[in-house]
Amino acid sequence: MRKLISGALVVISVLVLSPTGASAEWRQDNSGWWYSEGNSYAKGWRDINGKTYYFDSNGYMKTGWVQDNYYETWHYFYQDGAMAHGTVIDGYELDEDGTWIKPSKEAEEARNLILKEDSNYISKMNAAYGAKLTKRYFEGNINKFIANDKWNLPVEDVYVFSLTGSYNDEYCGYMVGKTSKNVYCVPHQGGLSIYQIKNNEIVKTYKWLDSNGYDGNWRNLDKDK
């Protein structure tokens, strides 16, 4: 998962996992375990037999705590290399995607603001799909998370959350401006509008600039205009 939108907003997903080929296999030398891929070897994130692993730049499997430097997130890998998720390690809570939920009063306030301003939509999605707002969040400049040249939102630092279903399906993302406190509901793909939400209403629509005026109201709420 790395961005919230394919080719545009990156959130909410969490990990971009490379597939493994038929000739791939585990190997070990004096420096550790590595995973061969034909004439090469795995580097970065890999999904192998339903488990998630991380390999360093030299191709060796990582264990223990590992930081994603781009998103400034932490993950824990057991001694067999598999990533932990949905548990507590050394007193630190990991979400279902394996990301450490970093305690932050400001981030918690941003999450509560989303639940307040867009409660109707979130409740509807919860009833229909078991969707919940993640505790996991990212933070940084808005341009780090969306292709803002396509939407032209005000530039500021934001907190980013995801609305995910019971099978970790991501339905949309949310951003909260650290300065403005604006709440934005973000589609999981480009070409659709981003909505600013307040008091359960769409108060402003930021259309994708190449959409030729198409909006689509992808949230599909009768009350939204």
From TrEMBL:
InterPro entries: Cell_wall/Cho-bd_repeat
SUPFAM superfamilies reported for this sequence: Cell wall binding repeat
A matching Pfam family: Choline_bind_3
Annotated Gene3D superfamilies: Cholin Binding
Residues of the signal peptide: 1-24
Positions annotated as Cell wall-binding repeat: 42-61, 62-83
Keywords from the UniProt entry: Repeat, Signal
Protein name as annotated: Cell wall-binding protein
Species name: Clostridium beijerinckii
